[in-house]
Amino acid sequence: MRICTCILFFIILSITDRMDAKNFVIINKIMYDSPLNEQIATGVAYSNGEYVELYNAGIETVNLNGWVLRGGGSTEIYYFPVNTTMGPKTYLIVAYQYYNSGFTLDQLYSGITATADCQIQYQRKIILSNSGEPVYLRDNYGMTKDSIYYDGTSSKTKPNRLSADNADGLEGNSCVCVQRKTTIFKDDGCAIPNNLEWVTAVVNPFQQNTSFTQPFLPGVGISYAYDLAGNRISRKLVYLDSNPTHVKQVFSDSIPEPSEEKLGNRIIKLYPNPTKGVLAVEIRGGNPDEGIRMILYSSQGTMLQDKTYEPEITTIEMSSYPTGWYILRVIAGDKKTEYKIIKQ
User: Fold this and answer.
1) More exposed terminus of the chain, fewer Cβ within 10 Å: N or C?
2) pLDDT confidence band for 23 (50 / 70 / 90)
3) Residue 109 and residue 29: Cα distance in Å, rounded?
């Protein structure tokens, strides 16, 4: 029994230690519909102009060894070259370049010059679909640091649809791409996916006007424990103090579970409430393909956040909000319910 306890405790410490985020690298722009549209450009055998731009929003240099950028296809995996680093507040563009084409982005977007703070890497793994696809940025632990699903050609009335279509032949500096306007991070330094935090705007490579909300500690994290066969045996909510390697309190068998409420055939849990920073929402049951929205309002009725429920547990960052009470509305299909949230 003592051996099992030691193993479990080690897993909790190692996972919560990763919540002490030292890197905040995000996907900053997606140029998926180049005005060249893979057409022949003057003096160039084959041209493209698609790229994904990353930005280091943190205050420390990040080494991208083992990091990957993924597209929607099973083979669309780009591994960053060994010893690729991003300094604080710097950019890295990953651009598509057809084999032996010699095409470079400055042939389409004037004024682009690669420097240590504005890097460009060319690759042939990820070809961005004009009809839309997901893009993921994952670190060397396999954690998804950021992700986005843009949608180029589906129904124009789809909620929160992200698109940036460009007419063939348009001047490069006049075309548009999807760009971040705000970013909220979880305690582990991963950006919280939300299409409402993106906008379609004229391309300005190596620039951003994004505001960032980095995690505040004390914080709330989620710890997973596994048996020796690699099966997950428990999921727990942990509170972290200013030294996030120290677990102050754990929801376990010895601590009462958060209260539950039913919404149709779903079970909804919210915890902790009151909260000092992060509110966790867990929903079980129902149709997993049916979108669930969570909208946070101030006591005056101002909408503060509009999120799509993520599998298993969704976190709502409230650290930057003043103390008081808030309303969280959960909408699942034709059913909805509201909760009064106390921010301490």
Assistant:
1) N
2) confident
3) 14
Task: Tell me whether strands 324-332 and 335-343 are parallel, antiparallel or unpaired.
Answer: antiparallel
Question: Residues 203-255: pLDDT tens digits?
Answer: 888 876 566 555 433 344 444 454 444 455 555 554 444 333 333 333 333 33
Q: Looking at this protein, which amino acid is placed at residue 333?
A: G
| pLDDT exceeds cutoff 60 at 160 | yes
Same domain, yes or no: 275 and 293: yes
- Do 129 and 194 share a domain, yes or no? yes
Distance CA 320, CA 32 (A): 34
Give me the DSSP letters along 50-99.
Answer: -EEEEEE-SSS-EE-TT-EEE-SSTT-EEEPPTT-EE-TT-EEEEEE--T
- Say which amino acid occupies 158: K
Determine how many CB atoms are found less than 10 A away from the CB of residue 289: 5
Whether residue 14 sits in one domain with residue 26 = no
pTM score, two decimals?
0.57
**338 in the Ramachandran plot: left (φ > 0), alpha (ψ -120 to 50) or beta?**
beta
226-230: which pairs have CB atoms within 8 A and are 24 or more residues apart? Answer: 226/11, 228/7
The answer on 270 and 167 residing in a single domain is no
Q: What's the pLDDT tens digit per position in 274-287?
A: 887 788 888 877 76
Residue-range definition of the domain harbouring residue 128: 22-213
pLDDT score for 283: 80
Alpha-carbon distance 224 to 230, whole Å?
A: 11
**Of 214, 213, 211, 200, nearest in space to 29 by CA:** 200
